[in-house]
Every structure is written in structure tokens, then in C-alpha cells.
Design a protein that fits this description.
CATH architecture of the largest domain: Sandwich
Low-confidence stretches: 1-30, 423-428
Distance between the termini: 49 Å
Mean pLDDT: 85
CATH class of the largest domain: Mainly Beta
Strand content: 35-45%
Structural class: alpha+beta
CATH topology of the largest domain: Immunoglobulin-like
Shape: elongated
Length: about 425
């Protein structure tokens, strides 16, 4: 797997994404849209300079890119252009940079595209201001183009006695043979991917004195409710003080959150970090957990449904939901749950194909059969037979089953003429 290794000798500075929190909350579909790539701007401290260094971290899932066989090397090549545009608070395009990249994979590497994202980092020096980062990924094999916009802030912290860098969530960290700590940043911004939540940040003491400092942190939900509070205490040496700390466990439910650092000794919020919590394998069409639980009626028992619906908190409900699907995951060591994805994909197709004016498609008899058994092997349609109501016959050759639906009303409301009795399902 390709990873960017960052030692703690790097200067990681303040990122305050002004306005981003409100911006993404206004569009909650952000949580359920497919992300073709991720970009994360971070601002680094540069000593003896009035500019800061803005590093743009890029993570590209290889499943986003198209690969073509290179006949001369017998490898599979993906070719793409990565364009970075940065605009200042006046709307001026002060940075415009395009780089062309190529990824070459063997046959074996092609089997594991989902587990091996591509990482890139681009660095720029900027004055204190509000900025907009526009990142464009262009696939040169199929000419598809994907864009991402983010706002970020370069603060004027050079005149402050104490300032704190941007907060970086970590996917992992360890020490090398020389004792230097190596960190792996979380570029996606989704802490749902993490088992334990560790953060990296730096505290800058611009005085010549050593003194103690206590930092209070808050984790806020999107409605500004405080979910968790805590504090970290240090003795600050002059210059750069680097920290890796573990956040206390918190019951998260799917949504947007903000981590804030402040201190009673200073009347300011030192730094803040916006992040999301969602399951990494969340089906794109599953936007409402309660509705998703209702849709499990064809696969869960009555007792399991009651347990899900009666969970005391939303976080506990999500936990029980995931536990159910993990219990029937055919490949629990992979990041995808094939059964869950297939099930909710069938729910979506059934809703699209079989909905009526008064009933969602997955609740109809045809939708029910489709969700449980999938596409039939053959369908006989009889819409205009003489002396007969319209009816359809669905055949499933592989399981030796036949289902007959009759439209008694003439308005496309096809009803199953016999109930389903199955080893796993007992419905209507």
C-alpha cells in the first residue's frame, strides 16, 4: 500500500476551515454522495517568515481511475492530471498548478484497488488570509473530471504568544529505529474509519519562557450540542511543542462534528477541526437509519427488529444496526459488506421499479419478492389476456420457485396470489 509518511520534524500548523462547517451541514447529502477523491489543506508554521506553508493532502481511491493495459510493459496504467487552484479573499487566483501522474499496476495489484489509495501532497506558501482551495482530478484515460472545493484560513499567528496548529486525525502512528515518530494522516475526514481516535497537533510558544498551559477541548455536534469535554495539560518550552493525544471515547452517530481547542488563560479559540462520522461501507441510498431499519423486515427477525427500534440512543441504534450486518458479512476482513450493499441496492431498485401512488416499491409484493430473491430467471407478462385480470409469472430456476402476481384493480397494483413461506422468511 502506498502511504505518505510524515515525521514529526515537519511543522503542522493551524487550519481553520472558516465557513466549511456551515456549508456542509446545509447539504447533508454530502454524507451519502460517492467521494471520488479527498483533499485536505493544512497550514504549516514557517519560522522567520511572514508566510505559512499550506500543504494540500490528496487521497485518490484507485477505483475512481480507469486502467488500460500497456502492451509494451504488460502492466495496467492509470493516467490523470491533478490541478490545484487557490483563491484569496478577493477572489483572485493566486495559485494555479497542474501535474500529470501515472500509476502502473501488475495483474496482482489490480485485484486490490479498493485497498490501495493513491496519496499526493502539494505545498504552497501563503500570507494570512481566507482562501478557497479548488482541486480538480481529470482521468486522461476516459476524460472524466471530478472537482472538490474547500475553504481554509491562514492565520496571523506570528504575533501571538501562544498558538496551536491544525488538528490532524491519524490513521496510525509509530516510531522508527531512531525514535522519531511517524504519523499517517486521515485525509478523508471521516473518523468512522478509526478504531481509536488519535490527533496530532503542535503548540507554538513564541516567548522565551517555559510555562504550563491547560487546553480545554470540546466535541460539538452539528446543532452545537457539546458531546464531550476534556483537557490536556503541558509544560510549554519555547518554540515548537509537538503532541499526539488520544480523544476520549464518544458515542457518535452519523453526522457532522467539530473539535475545538481553547484555554482559560486566553480569550480565544485556538484552533478547530470539522469532521464527519459515518460508516465507511454505508450504502449510498441509505440516508435515514430508521427507514433503513424498517427496510430490514425481509431479512431480520421480529426480535432483532425490536432490538434495533428500541435502542436508547441514536448512537446505540447505529451500533446495533452495524452489529447485525457484520454478523452476516460473508467477508468480515474486507472493508465492504457485500450482503448489506446488495440488500440495500435491491431496496433501491425495488423502490424505483415498483412504487405506486400510495406505496413505496420495496413494500409492494413485487418489491418484496425482488428484495428477497433478486432478479427472476424469466418473467411471463399477461396484461391483456381475455377473461383474465392482468398477471405476471416470475420464475426462479436456480431455487425452483414460481411467483404469480395479479393486478386486481387494473391500476398496476400487482398482488402475490400465495404468501411466501421460506426457511428464512415468513412474510404476509
Amino acid at each position: 500500500m502506498k502511504k505518505i509518511l510524515f515525521t514529526l520534524t515537519l511543522f503542522f500548523l493551524m487550519l481553520i476551515q472558516t465557513g466549511l462547517y456551515a456549508q456542509i451541514i446545509e447539504n447533508k447529502d454530502f454524507l451519502f454522495q460517492e467521494q471520488y477523491f479527498y483533499s485536505e489543506p493544512l497550514v504549516f508554521y514557517v519560522r522567520d517568515s511572514m508566510k505559512a506553508r499550506a500543504d494540500v493532502f490528496i487521497q485518490i481511491p484507485l477505483t475512481t481511475l480507469s486502467f488500460k493495459k500497456n502492451q509494451s510493459t504488460q502492466k495496467f496504467d492509470a493516467k490523470y492530471d491533478l490541478t490545484i487552484n487557490i483563491y484569496n479573499s478577493f477572489g483572485e487566483n493566486i495559485i494555479s498548478n497542474t501535474s500529470s501522474e501515472t500509476i502502473s499496476n501488475t495483474d496482482e495489484q489490480q485485484k486490490y484497488l479498493a485497498d490501495n489509495p493513491e496519496f499526493r501532497i502539494k505545498s504552497y506558501f501563503l500570507k494570512p488570509d481566507n482562501y478557497k482551495l479548488e482541486t480538480t482530478l481529470r482521468d486522461r484515460n476516459n476524460y472524466m473530471e471530478y472537482k472538490s472545493d474547500k475553504k481554509f484560513f491562514v492565520p496571523d499567528f506570528f504575533n501571538s504568544e501562544v498558538s496551536i496548529s491544525s488538528i490532524m486525525f491519524l490513521t496510525d502512528f509509530k516510531s522508527d529505529s531512531l525514535g522519531k515518530r511517524i504519523i499517517f494522516p486521515l485525509v478523508t475526514g471521516n473518523i468512522g474509519e478509526l478504531k481509536d481516535i488519535y490527533i496530532f497537533y503542535e503548540i507554538y510558544n513564541n516567548s522565551e519562557n517555559t510555562f504550563p498551559l491547560s487546553i480545554n477541548y470540546k466535541i460539538l455536534s452539528e446543532n452545537n450540542t457539546t458531546l464531550k469535554e476534556g483537557n490536556f495539560s503541558y509544560v510549554l518550552s519555547p518554540g515548537v511543542n509537538q503532541r499526539v493525544d488520544r480523544l476520549a471515547p464518544t458515542d457518535y452517530s452519523t453526522g457532522f462534528f467539530r473539535l475545538e481547542f481553547a484555554s482559560n488563560a486566553y480569550s480565544t479559540i485556538f484552533t478547530q477541526k470539522d469532521f464527519v462520522y459515518k460508516w465507511s461501507d454505508l450504502p449510498m441510498n441509505m440516508k435515514d437509519l430508521d427507514n433503513a431499519i424498517n427496510q430490514m423486515v425481509y431479512i431480520a427477525t421480529d426480535n432483532q427488529m425490536d432490538s434495533l427500534r428500541k435502542a436508547p440512543t441514536q448512537a446505540e441504534k447505529e451500533k446495533r444496526f452495524l452489529q447485525f450486518w457484520k454478523s452476516i458479512d460473508p467477508s468480515p476482513k474486507t472493508s465492504k459488506n457485500e450482503v448489506m450493499n446488495e440488500y440495500y441496492n435491491r431496496i433501491k431498485i425495488a423502490t424505483d421499479k415498483f412504487s405506486t401512488s400510495y406505496q413505496e416499491g420495496w413494500r409492494t409484493d413485487m418489491g418484496m419478492v425482488f428484495v428477497i430473491f433478486g432478479n427472476p430467471s424469466s418473467i411471463e407478462r399477461h396484461p391483456f389476456d381475455e377473461n383474465s385480470k392482468p398477471y405476471e409469472v416470475w420464475e426462479y430456476f436456480d431455487i425452483n420457485k414460481q411467483f404469480i402476481f395479479v393486478d386486481y384493480t387494473g391500476f398496476g397494483d400487482y398482488r402475490l396470489i400465495t404468501p411466501i413461506w421460506d426457511k428464512r422468511f415468513k412474510i404476509r
